[in-house]
Amino acid sequence: MNRRTGLIHALDVTDREKALAVAEAVEPHVDAVKVNYPLVLSQGLEFLDHVPGTVVADLKVADIPNTNRLIAEQVNRYADALIAHAFPGRDSLESCVEHFDGDVYAVVEMSHPGAEQIFKRERDDLIQTALEADVDGVIAPATRPQSLRAIKEKTGLDLLSPGVGAQGGKIRETLEAGADYLIVGRAIYRADDPGAEAARIASEISNYL
Ligand code: BMP
Fold this sequence. Notes:
By secondary structure, this protein is α/β, with parallel strands linked by helices. It is built from nine helices and eight strands. An eight-stranded parallel barrel has the order 1-2-3-4-5-6-7-8, surrounded by six helices. The protein is globular, with a radius of gyration of 16 Å. The two termini are 16 Å apart. 6-hydroxyuridine-5'-phosphate is lined by residues 10, 12, 36, 58, 107, 110-111, 139, 141, 162-163, 165-167, 183-187.
């Protein structure tokens, strides 16, 4: 992905008109729009043809290699990047890398409190799996800057970091800990003026990149 603003909008909106309006409004201020199950399940994969700019399909692909291949082949036509889980193992993740035409990003630690239970403990193995599968970057938590720092050090890869805003992560702290892109959802699509809020966040990011 080409970094221009360092901001990725998580368009977790299920209403078609609202999703279209927000996607259009944020487009000048973001490097990509990340779509997840709420949007894809409510509007269908075909909807992604209406999202301007770079589209990251956050399907957190997490299956056996053959099923991962089938999923990657379906998404190829609609998205520029794909997010997969590292925990199913190297062969599963490699299948995404092999069969998806764009960038593949692996989740190595999640941002919510429950990630303390398993992700934090298993993080080093997940990082190793991501490196062996030769992914293009990793998903790491803005809610835990210390983890971010460790993940950046161990991978040297692009860090895409969710958790700023609604989950409590801070822009400056997250960037100083090593994030290359901030993934921001609710703070933007719930704002009165999503375009203006995306512009404001992008401008703040530009102070620290
Ligand atoms: P929000 O800024 O509204 O919290 O949205 C964050 C987005 O990033 C959501 O789409 C969520 O599914 C995703 N995400 C996350 O919050 N934490 C992770 O560890 C991985 C994610 O993909």
